[in-house]
Predict the 3D structure of the following.
Amino acid sequence: MSDQLLSPKMLGYWTQDQLREAPDESGIFCVFRAARDPETEQMEIQELLYVGEHRSARYGLEHHADQAKWQAFLQPDEELWYSVGLAGHANRERLAAAMINAHKPRFNNSSQYRDHFPFDETTVHIYGKKDKLQSIFTVERSA
């Protein structure tokens, strides 16, 4: 593959109770820590915790082996929030790898993509629900 532009629209946010409403389609998924803003009293995204990919983003989230770890990380009154970016099979892994490489989420520490990007130069332009995500970034092949 050559240089590529990937432009996912991030859909969401869903809480654990709303996860069944997330798209049951191929794509990447993001797991966030949300907490109440002291000034506005509104729940807001605080941190990207994890990026994954699956042929069914919703299934990948609902059945992920690290759900308990993510939940245990939260402080009282914090919640897990989820978003999904639709991506076909051909680009799904490359997109997830670019997201992990650029954002380095804390629960992707053991990912091969955290410090290694095996694809050709990839530019990602994220739109939609993108709190705590870089809007546009480029990742280059690294050994």
